[in-house]
Write a structure and sequence with these properties.
Layout lengths: L7 H12 L11 H17 L5 H6 L7 H32 L11 H13 L3 H5 L4 H16 L2 E5 L10 E6 L5 E10 L9 E6 L2 E3 L2 E3 L2 E8 L12 H19 L5
Parallel strand pairs: 3-7
Antiparallel strand pairs: 1-2, 2-3, 4-7, 5-6
Helix pairs in contact: 4-5, 7-8
């Protein structure tokens, strides 16, 4: 809606409602919970000898500490602001062409930036999506995994599934041995958590000296196609599929005896 809807009032309504979730003083309001989480994180950090939660989170990460994070962000900040100013200039030009008065608002950004990209670079994301049909992207991911690691994927139809739209695969290693079971859950539905992630129903383990293969999941929230239409992904959504599959590879190859 924010990217393609020409009705500015509707974009505003959707933006404000989305960003004001759980903030209405009712049974779903979570401000007190969020404040408690922040307080508990700070207590935990001080118990562990740190001044902030950032410090405890970064202790065993590549950055090492919060100061290094800010050093990197400070390097990025000035050029990022200059690029944002260029985009804002394009957005204002597009709004002027549409005879929209006043300064750009948060619900204008995606819509007019998309129009600016089309005007300046002749980029239309909907045309790119025609090359990113979901099953083709999935097969592209499997092709890359085969070329890099020798993996093959055999679709299974006899496994239990929480939802009928899910796809299931047996993952075979380059020597032909069974490596993992892989579940793909593509589409949004009522009650499903938002976002995309890699999880699993069973971790890899050993029983009686034999490796028990993991059951790994990739979960997404793509819009389910209607009336027999193909499911076309954006470039960002295709990248997300590759990203989550990277986590799945980590799970496929896990081989821990303890």
């Amino acid at each position: 809606v924010l990217q393609y809807c020409s009705n500015r009032e509707l974009r505003k309504k959707v933006y404000l409602m989305y960003n004001d979730r759980c903030n209405h003083g009712d049974e779903y309001d979570n401000k007190a919970i969020a404040a408690e989480i922040v307080s508990l994180r700070l207590q935990r950090s001080r118990l562990m000898g740190h001044d902030t939660f950032a410090d405890i989170q970064l202790e065993n990460k590549m950055a090492g500490n919060a100061a290094n994070v800010y050093e990197l962000l400070d390097q990025i900040w000035d050029p990022a602001v200059e690029r944002a100013k260029d985009e804002l200039s394009d957005i204002k030009a597009m709004m002027k062409a549409d005879r929209v008065k006043g300064e750009p608002q948060r619900w204008d950004y995606m819509y007019y930036l998309d129009k600016a990209k089309k005007a300046r670079y002749a980029i239309d994301e909907s045309e790119i999506s025609e090359y990113l049909e979901i099953n083709a992207v999935q097969q592209g991911i499997f092709y890359v995994a085969n070329r890099l690691y020798g993996l093959t994927f055999v679709q299974l139809t006899n496994l239990p599934k929480p939802n009928e739209d899910m796809l299931t695969f047996l993952v075979k290693d380059k020597d032909g041995s069974d490596l993992a079971i892989f579940y793909c859950d593509y589409f949004t539905r009522a009650g499903k958590k938002a976002g995309a992630w890699c999880g699993g129903y069973r971790g890899q383990k050993y029983e009686d000296g034999k490796r028990v293969i993991p059951i790994v999941t990739n979960v997404f929230n793509f819009s389910k196609p209607v009336d027999g239409q193909p499911c076309l992904l954006t470039a960002d959504e295709a990248e997300t599929m590759f990203h989550e599959f990277g986590h799945a590879l980590d799970s496929f190859f896990t081989d821990l005896p303890y």
